[in-house]
């Protein structure tokens, strides 16, 4: 009974200040979390008061940690089995409902018997009955303590000497105490009851919300599973909303998977470099990475057949990558330029090789760009010219011209693929490995830059938002640290 | 870059059948290709052909270009033969030194891996 143990450990601190507990009741949430069913603090309050009655029978410091537990009949179920009239004297009962024990032993239990724990929770009239009982209990001093003493210890020290001698007196008619019991205690008990009721209702609403969210989540997961198996990418991943074609959606999904594979390959290369593997082993890893790139070019080729606009407009990449896109991907000559700065120790032959590679990529890029320009010019001419009568014909011609786009994207990807292969040929194995790491890191950072840019704070937010912005900035910087960790 | 137009007829075989202008288009193509160092079969409306022409001009090469759509006589035949030869698309097709290099993808690949320039030099199309 974990909850019971929690209760014990939590309450053992209060062992010697039973009357301090009423002050600790608010907020009630701490206790409600410990128990599945709602906790009625009205009952707690009453039980504390009743426990005070109990204390008169025994010394407060009788070394009964269980006494504290008895004051916390927080588990109303305990009320059930406590009404058996068992005697309390010397009995180390860890039953928190033993406060009721005492009541029953006094014969007061008869009034508690008919009340089920559930009934107690929901029926406020039962509370009144308990209060009625307390009326009869005549607890002058204890009630004084309970009714708002700021120094529970002093209250207790007062109660202590009082407890014993007043065991007989407490039944005496203390009209003063009766009135005190009525006014303050009653009000406080009523307030506690109200608070307990409110917290119960709040908890019920929260649980209901959780349940409905859980159902909704499982439904969404099912939908996602189904959609993925059908090859569609559900959700706002591409940012295109519902206007994404199936070919584009499939490619986006495959590209996401490819990115994950890329991370894996990168870490593999990184560890291989740090472990100083032999060239042969490293070459195997690098061949795997080249094949990984060949894979994405093949996928892009398939995607170009179904949705060339998706590729050429770069909707499959992040915004920052898209900004510097060339013909549906990276510009090979730019990549070479970026790499030459990173690969310093190059032999003469390697330098020549890299330089000629840069030149040939530039020439090829220029040729393809000019070809694409001519396509655009031709398309413009087709669309601009023609009368209304010929519109259908011109549209057909324009459609025919658009089909050439696929060819250009494919040639551009071919150029990229050849560039990577040539790099692998010109450089040594270790240099190639470092080179691939640099490329992977670069694009990782570019992607990170994209998300940082997207979540940067805007100037229009002022006032309270500023502090939130700074924390967001810090979080963003920290989250992007891992991108910069290796170089 | 120079475009061949009328001189094609000089290569027509003496025996001409009624159906086709050229009995053996492939041989015809071979003959045309071996006449110059760099021969490109192209079409004036094709943008990829434009790109390949730009590539060679950018390298300082002066290719011989045959615009098939501007040849009313044998253009279609050659185009069909090129499709047979290449399998997929007809133009652009490049011959260097009389030997078939291929379409745009092979030309680009050979340029990147550094084999195009030596080939051009060997054929006498580049002097550097």
TrEMBL record, chain A:
Any one GO CC term of the record: nucleus
DOG1 domain mapped to chain residues: 248-456
Basic and acidic residues bias locations: 108-127
UniProt domain BZIP: residue ranges: 182-226
Pfam families: bZIP_2, DOG1
SMART domains assigned: BRLZ
Region (Disordered): 82-127, 144-184
Principal location class: nucleus
Skewed-composition ranges (Polar residues): 95-107, 148-160
Subcellular localization: Nucleus
Assigned keywords, A-Z: Activator, Coiled coil, DNA-binding, Nucleus, Transcription, Transcription regulation
GO MF assignments: sequence-specific DNA binding
Stretches assigned to coiled coil: 203-230
Superkingdom classification of source: Eukaryota
Family under the similarity heading: Belongs to the bZIP family.
UniProt protein name: BZIP transcription factor family protein
Source organism phylogeny: Eukaryota, Viridiplantae, Streptophyta, Embryophyta, Tracheophyta
Automatic annotation (TrEMBL), chain B:
Keywords: Cytoplasm, Redox-active center
Skewed-composition ranges (Polar residues): 1-11
Location in the cell: Cytoplasm
Annotated Pfam families: Glutaredoxin (PF00462)
GO CC annotations on file: cytoplasm
Positions in coiled-coil regions: none
Keyword match Zinc-finger: no
Chain positions covered by the region annotation Disordered: 1-20
Glutaredoxin domain residues: 38-101
Domain of life: Eukaryota
UniProt key word Cytoplasm: yes
Similarity comment text for this entry: Belongs to the glutaredoxin family. CC-type subfamily.
NCBIfam families: GlrX-like_plant
Protein name as it appears in the record: Glutaredoxin-C8
Organism, scientific name: Forsythia ovata
């Amino acid at each position: 009974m974990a909850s019971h143990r929690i209760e014990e450990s939590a309450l053992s601190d209060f062992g010697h200040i039973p009357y301090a507990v009423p002050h600790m009741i608010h907020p009630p949430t701490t206790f409600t979390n410990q128990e599945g069913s709602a906790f009625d603090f009205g009952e707690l309050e009453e039980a504390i008061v009743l426990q005070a009655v109990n204390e008169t029978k025994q010394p407060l410091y009788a070394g009964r940690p269980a006494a504290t537990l008895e004051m916390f009949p927080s588990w109303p179920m305990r009320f059930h089995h406590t009404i058996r009239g068992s005697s309390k004297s010397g009995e180390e009962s860890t039953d928190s409902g033993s406060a009721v024990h005492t009541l029953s032993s006094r014969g007061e239990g008869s009034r508690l018997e008919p009340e089920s724990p559930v009934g107690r929770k929901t029926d406020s009239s039962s509370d009144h009955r308990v209060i009625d009982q307390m009326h009869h209990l005549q607890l002058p001093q204890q009630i004084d303590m309970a009714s708002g003493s700021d120094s529970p210890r002093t209250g207790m020290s007062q109660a202590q000497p009082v407890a014993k001698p007043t065991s007989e007196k407490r039944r005496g008619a203390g009209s003063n105490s009766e009135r005190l019991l009525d006014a303050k205690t009653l009000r406080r008990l009523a307030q506690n009851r109200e608070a307990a009721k409110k917290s119960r209702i709040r908890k019920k609403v929260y649980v209901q919300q959780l349940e409905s969210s859980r159902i909704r989540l499982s439904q969404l997961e099912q939908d996602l599973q189904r959609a993925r198996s059908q090859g569609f990418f559900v959700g706002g991943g591409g940012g295109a909303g519902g206007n994404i074609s199936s070919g584009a959606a499939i490619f986006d999904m495959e590209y996401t998977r490819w990115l994950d594979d890329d991370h894996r390959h990168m870490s593999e290369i990184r560890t291989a470099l740090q472990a100083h593997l032999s060239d042969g082993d490293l070459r195997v890893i690098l061949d795997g990475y080249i094949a990984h790139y060949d894979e994405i070019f093949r996928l892009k080729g398939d995607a170009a057949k179904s949705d060339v606009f998706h590729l050429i407009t770069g909707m499959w990449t992040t915004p920052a990558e898209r900004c510097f896109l060339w013909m549906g991907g990276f510009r090979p000559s730019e990549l070479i330029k970026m790499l030459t700065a990173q690969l310093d120790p190059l032999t003469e032959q390697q330098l020549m090789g890299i330089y000629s590679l840069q030149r040939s990529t530039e020439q090829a890029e220029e040729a393809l760009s000019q070809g694409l320009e001519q396509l655009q010019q031709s398309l413009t001419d087709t669309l601009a010219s023609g009368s209304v009568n010929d519109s259908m014909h011109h549209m057909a011609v324009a459609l025919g011209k658009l089909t050439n786009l696929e060819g250009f994207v494919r040639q551009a990807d071919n150029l990229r693929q050849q560039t990577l292969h040539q790099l692998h040929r010109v450089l040594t194995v270790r240099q190639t490995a470092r080179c691939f790491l640099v490329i992977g890191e670069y694009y990782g950072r570019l992607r990170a830059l994209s998300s940082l840019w997207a979540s940067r704070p805007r100037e229009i937010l002022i006032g309270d938002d500023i502090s939130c912005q700074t924390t967001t900035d810090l979080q963003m910087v920290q989250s992007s640290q891992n991108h910069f960790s290796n170089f | 870059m120079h475009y061949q137009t009328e001189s094609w007829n000089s290569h027509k075989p003496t025996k001409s059948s009624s159906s086709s202008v050229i009995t053996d288009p492939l041989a015809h193509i071979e003959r045309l290709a071996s006449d110059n160092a760099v021969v490109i079969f192209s079409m004036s409306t094709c943008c990829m052909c434009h790109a390949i022409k730009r590539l060679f001009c950018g390298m300082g090469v002066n290719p011989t270009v045959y615009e098939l759509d501007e040849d009313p006589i044998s253009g279609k035949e050659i185009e069909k033969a090129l499709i047979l030869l290449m399998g997929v698309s007809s133009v652009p097709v490049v011959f260097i030194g009389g030997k078939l290099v291929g379409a745009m993808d092979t030309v680009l690949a050979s340029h990147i891996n550094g084999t195009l320039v030596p080939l051009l030099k060997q054929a006498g199309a580049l002097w550097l």
